[in-house]
Amino acid sequence: MTIAGSTASTTYWEPLWAEGRRYRQLCEAEKRLMDRHLGVGHGRPALDIGSGDGTLARHLHHELGYRTTGADCSPSALALAAAHDSGSGPAWRCLDITADDLTALPDPAYKLITCRLVYRWMDNKPAFLSLVRQLLVPGGTFWVVTEVTGRRTTTDPALLGLGINPAEVEILTAGWSVVHTADIDVLRCYALHP
């Protein structure tokens, strides 16, 4: 499912993380939305896809009480994530969720799967969503945070291309029994339930 040299691959992300690139951190408004839509984890398994430096995985683990696994294809991102851990924290797995053997994950299914600022980069969105549905337990939640096109006030084409378009929004939201959305500036948060 991952194409060599694609923006969903290790060859794209590893050099960016290794050179010190950092991405948008969680803000208080986003944390409040997660608290409201995701609730307390009670030790249930959560999977953070594209966990990067681990900020979201640590929030799920320490603040919301999920037993969290952070998965990212970049070894440098995971090294950064693990370096922030003190004591017991999330489990970290270096894998490309779309191409690698998922038996490396500690759980066969998850109550919560998160995908923050990552969905836009998936080459084959329908196949990725099918994989998420296979990993999500009945009654679970798929939490997606992404930009939506047309929300930035810039004219920089590189920044304007970071969002998903209406057709990609339709692919994301189709087939779920419940879809909740909330906006934070240029971001849209989706709580999707099977």
Structure description:
The protein has 194 residues and is an alpha/beta fold. 31% of the residues lie in helices and 25% in strands. It has seven helices and seven strands, in the order H-H-E-H-E-H-E-E-H-E-H-H-E-E. Strands 3-2-1-4-5-7-6 form a seven-stranded mixed beta sheet. Helix 5 links the parallel strand 4 and strand 5. The longest helix is centred in the N-terminal third of the chain and has 11 residues. The radius of gyration is 16 Å and the shape is globular. The N terminus is likely disordered.
Roughly what is the average pLDDT, rounded to an integer?
89
- Proportion of residues in β-strands: 15-25%
Parts with pLDDT < 50 across at least 5 consecutive residues:
1-5
Kindly report how far apart the N and C termini lie.
23 Å
By secondary-structure content and strand pairing, the structural class works out as alpha/beta
Radius of gyration: 16 Å
Helix and strand succession?
Answer: HHEHEHEEHEHHEE
Number of helices: 7
Share of residues in helices: 25-40%
The main β sheet shows up as: 7 strands, mixed
Sum up the overall morphology in one term: globular
Q: Taking strands numbered 1, 2, ... along the chain, how are they ordered across the largest sheet?
A: 3-2-1-4-5-7-6
| Secondary structure tally: strands | 7
